[in-house]
């Protein structure tokens, strides 16, 4: 275990650690573009220059291993001058179109220019013009002029997804990132290249021009796209959610997330949501406040206790299941069903992150049922004729439930079908009651992933003020008072 | 809220007569020197503001008459009254790339501070010399692209001094 000194601070690191990793461990700032902790070392951007004592020349920290007694620093004036020149070279052909660039505000070039900018550029030649708005595939757009050829995106497709769509073509100042003919960048992890691109060369088609990044606020939560439970950051403002990005978690998702998970924000915005409770009788619909509706359902439930059933999906938090089960048992309900979207694909795995079980908390549902001594039966065996009242805690992401319509139609043969849903969907109007639910960004709780790791989701904001969580539903159905807490998207200015 | 303190003196007549005296003096002076009077008979007479007066906004146009604005939203970010709303979109020409499909200023919320003009990196918004923004009850004071760039007073649009297309061709 070699010991070294970084910027005057001592640290002992494992054999084979690079100097830049030692910098990171000590939380020392060091400029870098091409090095990424989730990828191999390329050593092409030359930004990570350090001075190693006893060595006449500056070295790059990302491709130098720590040796016993090494003394390295990037606080030297020589280092600063070198990095200034390197950044100047990176910007020789840069188009400087920050005003229209989506990366502006979170761009590596802008960030380092504050410290290492030359401010009075010495370049007098004309700029080399390259292709702009290059369509790389269904998700990503390339701007060759902004690219600094750090090679991160290329290494991502060759090392992580192993799909090798991207490559660097041509030489010198004509070098450009691109895809091969008729082989677009089209894999389920493509948006990660947008995240790792340190500049605005790769932009996401989904997010392009929707917002400037400084208008967005964010909070950390867990993706509800599948049972892996990737750690993510959700970005939003008062108009809704705009994007989701991965957050590093060694145990769960590493540095990445899949493109399926990137869509999860689309199911929480107001235009997709069920905003009030609805009672459908004989082809007419009546609107109710969710709590009032739940109380009426409670009255019905008391009358039908022996013939009632509850159907659950793995899309709610463990806390919600616990309180729902407790309440239902108090009522005396005996029949509980587990609705699985795609039973044949439950065990599927794409080899990286995405799992066939597209529910974030199947494990949590099973665990809570076990704790409450409840035998969850398969929803396929549910006979609507036997039950006069069925309460379905429906899926939040309905797109993952191909048998949604079939199930609603089948179960609506029961006398009363109560459907709890965060999204609106005309299909649901076959149900007799629809109660609006909170989405995963509007409540606190726990998701248990496929491995049994418990992870907390966080309430970031309120989108549908009146929507209930499953535990609030469980309180209201008893006829008790519920205090629905409101968090303004503007941050406490409710 | 605490109450105002009781006035120390209850005599108000002296103050009233002092005030009336000043008014009288000014009126008599004005009657004697009508040419030096400070007030104007607006709207028949209008004041000549300096050419740098910050009045109603103008969105400048390029040589081909299209909007100069790149929809970078820096003006909207800088606006203290939060009265600029821009919706950006993809321009069919990749060298332009981004442009506003909707650009609106709520003139009634604008405080005419000129911060938008200062923030704009490409001389796309200017504050012009017009200062009479009149309208009947219920008029639309949310100005869109048509009003801001192509209102009749601008005679087809004010040209920008900074054309990216030309700069790009010159290799800048
Ligand atoms: S890549 Fe960075 S520096 Fe370049 S235009 Fe985009 S934000 Fe500006
Ligand atoms: S596109 Fe971005 S990630 Fe790829 S080489 Fe260029 S700068 Fe690096
Ligand atoms: S003048 Fe000031 S208040 Fe008016 S639009 Fe511009 S920045 Fe906003
Ligand atoms: S007017 Fe200027 S600052 Fe405002 S969006 Fe357009 S280009 Fe940007
Ligand atoms: S980070 Fe070391 S050379 Fe790029």
Structural summary, described in words:
The complex is a heterodimer of chains A (494) and B (172). Chain A has 494 residues and is an alpha/beta fold. An 8-stranded mixed beta sheet of chain A has the order 15-14-21-20-19-16-17-18, covered by helices on one side. In chain A, strands 2-1-5-3-4 form a 5-stranded mixed beta sheet, with helices on both faces. A 3-stranded antiparallel beta sheet of chain A has the order 6-7-10. Chain A has helices spanning 19-25, 77-90, 108-116, 152-160, 191-196, 259-262, 290-303, 318-331, 362-371, 404-411, 470-477; strands at 3-6, 9-12, 49-52, 59-60, 70-73, 134-135, 140-142, 166-169, 176-179, 202-204, 217-222, 231-237, 240-246, 277-281, 284-288, 308-312, 335-338, 376-378, 389-393, 416-421, 433-436, 445-448, 454-457. Chain A has 3 domains: 3-90, Roll (Ubiquitin-like (UB roll)); 126-209, Alpha-Beta Plaits; 270-491, Rossmann fold (3-Layer(aba) Sandwich), CATH 3.40.50.740. Chain B is α+β, with helices and mostly antiparallel strands and 172 residues long. Chain B has a domain at 57-170: Alpha-Beta Plaits (2-Layer Sandwich). Chain B contains 5 helices and 5 strands; from the N terminus they run αβαββαββαα. Chain B has a 3-stranded antiparallel beta sheet. Chain B has a two-stranded antiparallel sheet with strand order 1-4. Chain B starts with 12 loop residues before the first helix and ends with a helix. At the A-B interface, loops of A face strand 2 of B. The complex binds iron/sulfur cluster (SF4) (4 copies) and FE2/S2 (inorganic) cluster. FE2/S2 (inorganic) cluster binds next to loops of chain A. FE2/S2 (inorganic) cluster is lined by residues 32-35, 43-48, 60, 62 of chain A.
What are the salient characteristics of this protein?
heterodimer; A: 494 residues; Ubiquitin-like (UB roll); Alpha-Beta Plaits; 3 domains; 8-stranded mixed beta sheet; 5-stranded mixed beta sheet; 11 helices; B: 172 residues; 5 helices; 24% helix; elongated; binds iron/sulfur cluster; binds FE2/S2 (inorganic) cluster
